[in-house]
Amino acid sequence: MKTTTSCAVFTIVFLFVENSFELHHDKASSLKNLIKTNKAEKKVFKRTTCQNESHYESDRFCCRKCEPGFFLKNHCKEEGGSPECQKCEEGKEYMDHPHALSKCLACTRCASSENMEEDQNCTTTQNTKCRCKENFFCNHTPCSSCQSCTECLLGIQQECNSTTDRVCIHIEKRSHVWTVVAVLFMSLLTVFCIGMHVRNARKIREREYEVIKTENPQRAHEEKNTEDEFPAELADIDLHPYLHYIVDHIEDIKRFVRENGLTEIEVQRIIGSYPNHIQEQDYQLMHSWYQKQRKKGPLFTLSNGLRKMNCNRAADTIIEHIKSDINQKRKEKETLEQIHNES
Q1: PROSITE patterns given for it (predicted)?
Q2: Would you kindly state where each structural domain of the chain is located, as residue ranges?
Q3: Cα separation of 299 and 315, whole Å?
Q4: How many C-beta atoms surround the C-beta of residue 341 within 10 A?
């Protein structure tokens, strides 16, 4: 009897514990499901409220973006609200679109060293707009450096602008061939006359030197030493007016530019632009070389380069021609000033 009663009590206790455990397990599962549902609802809520491109997601809310010309200082304090935005610094910063950045973008500075100048000022809503200086162009975007416009020997077909290089006239594209022949003939005749003038001037100078040498040896010695030195007044002279003359007196232009500054890529690009015109190739090669040497004493560099090629005669002829031209212009200027003073 006691055994039966004990078994009954044990059975009742076991069933009670089992039911309690199942009830606790069901509550725990329900709680986990509820937490998952809440998290999913929160994620869905965030994705749906910040899908608008005019808003951004902060730590707590979806806020409106700052307008162009402003930067974000503090986030909004309510859902869909406006943040605290501060204006960009005029003339130094800009922002050209709605955003949520904590600072504005710096204004671009137009690089004068790259032959660029300012076209439009920088504002709080628009960056600086740059353009090429006069006689320079840039044919790629964005532009970081402008190139000098090509100088044409036979004439201009299309003028240079800020985005397109100058187009030169070639002989086969010109209808009046005889006009070109006449121009070339006159150019050669001019060069010949200048050469004769230089030659005669040199002979006259040599005669004067011989006379001085006989009458005053000390003075002759001093003048000879002065002539042998490179003239200081020619150090930074503009060689543009003399480029044609220089080209006519250098036998191997391509070798000269290769050994004195131009890369092989630059040489081949210029040759490819004028495949059937040797004279135009030589002129453009020398012009490109000069553009690189303008601030480095171009005449001194030219003279040294020619002497390294054992072209001493060409170097002497070019320097003598430029000196003669400068002296002639100086005398003309002095004569005009004298006439003006007398009047």
Answers
A1: DEATH_DOMAIN (PS50017), TNFR_NGFR_2 (PS50050)
A2: 57-129, 173-342
A3: 9
A4: 7
H-only helix segments in 216-311: 217-228, 243-248, 253-259, 264-273, 278-293, 298-308
Greater confidence (289 vs 211) lies with 289
Can you give the pTM of this predicted structure? 0.37
Please, are residues 166 and 158 in contact by the beta-carbon 8 Å criterion? Answer: yes
Residue 82 sits at φ, ψ, to 5 deg, of -95, 135
pLDDT in tens, 34-44: 445 444 444 43
Q: Quote the DSSP letter at residue 232.
A: G
Alpha carbons 304 and 187: distance in angstroms, whole number: 28
Q: Which SS3 state, helix, strand or coil, does residue 57 take?
A: strand
Judged by average pLDDT, the poorest of 4-8, 54-58, 178-182, 266-270 is 4-8
The CATH number of 173-342 is which of 3.40.50.720, 1.10.533.10, 1.20.1050.40, 3.30.470.20?
A: 1.10.533.10
CATH second-level architecture of 57-129? Ribbon (2.10)
Shared fold status for 57-129 and 173-342: no
* H or E element at residue 134: none
pLDDT at 257 exceeding the cut of 70: yes
Mean pLDDT on 171-196:
68
